[in-house]
Design brief:
Oligomer: single chain
Largest sheet: none
Bound molecules: zinc ion
Order of helices and strands: HHHHHHHHHH
Number of helices: 10
Length: 299
């Protein structure tokens, strides 16, 4: 019962934060304030009443069009709201702390709580970056760079609290676990960013133009800060696979096939696919990696 209530609350909160994110994604590229004018239609300026501003539901009722001028609102609005709402709800549903709430409180719930809070922040950031890169081919530094700091902070907080739980009273061991984790994350971050910079350099030598932006390198560094080394590699592999499938499906469209420079000239929002890969790695990273290692014969 408590678990259902918690999940419902997380879904509603996620929808609300997704709705706020839509305002940000619409207004940031224009350099507009995210607070000042009330929510309005981008075509006719009609101010939205409260029932036109409900996450996902209003979009369905209005069938994706403005009530006054019938301008197409776009798929991004319900997609962003449902993504944040769905991810937050799913995270709360499978929160390991529920066992602690229902069962015996044998260990402290704080490491799991910190990880839960971190996942909320991480998914919100990933949906924001995915939407911005898809629409504007833009991964702002003021999202990715604080994202790196937040990722390390949440990880170190979790490591410190679990170390303290494992050795009650042994504060020295807990403090030793922190620099070790910090070093591991720093190496992962440099490796992840370096991987993108290496591909970028090779592409520039071969094609004599920019292929991958520096924003993608900072995004990979952010993924490494939150996910660690192995899951970032998985996120990268999944992202590149999604991007390739998307590019191939674009090529089958007749309009794309006819245009002269369809191959290699069309700009693909790689960051969006890396964000989707990051979400997959965050949700199912460890089971996927374990299954892969098992399949590859490592154990
Ligand atoms: Zn309108």
């Amino acid at each position: 019962m408590l678990r259902v209530l918690g999940t419902t609350f997380a879904a509603l909160a996620g929808l609300a934060f997704g709705s706020f994110l839509n305002v940000c994604v619409t207004r940031w590229p224009q350099g507009e304030s995210i607070v000042a004018p009330r929510s309005h239609c981008c075509s006719c300026g009609h101010s939205l009443t409260w029932w036109e501003n409900l996450p996902a539901i209003s979009w369905l009722i209005l069938r994706g069009r403005c009530r006054t001028c019938c301008a197409w609102i776009g798929w991004r609005y319900p997609l962003v709201e449902l993504s944040v709402g769905g991810l937050w709800a799913f995270t709360v549903w499978r929160f390991p702390g529920w066992n602690l709430v229902y069962g015996t409180l044998s260990s402290e719930p704080y490491p799991a709580l910190i990880a839960l809070l971190g996942q909320f922040v991480f998914y919100w950031l990933l949906v924001a970056l995915a939407a911005l890169d898809a629409e504007q081919l833009w991964l702002p530094d003021w999202l990715t760079l604080p994202g790196i700091v937040l990722g390390i902070s949440f990880d170190l907080g979790r490591v410190y609290l679990s170390a303290r739980t494992a050795a009650p009273g042994g504060l020295e061991t807990a403090f030793l676990a922190v620099p070790h984790a910090a070093l591991a994350r720093t190496i992962s971050i440099f490796f992840a960013a370096g991987l993108i910079l290496l591909i970028r350099g090779i592409y520039r030598l071969m094609r004599r133009r920019e292929g991958i932006g520096l924003g993608d390198a900072k995004l990979m560094a952010m993924l490494a800060a939150w996910l660690g080394f192995s899951r970032t590699l998985l996120a990268f592999g999944a992202g590149v696979m999604f991007a390739t499938l998307f590019a191939l499906s674009l090529l089958t469209l007749p309009a794309q096939r006819k245009s002269k420079d369809h191959w290699g000239a069309a700009k693909l929002p790689l960051g969006t696919f890396l964000c989707i890969g990051g979400i997959v790695a965050a949700l199912w990273g460890y089971p996927i990696i374990a299954a892969y290692l098992h399949w590859a014969g490592f154990y």
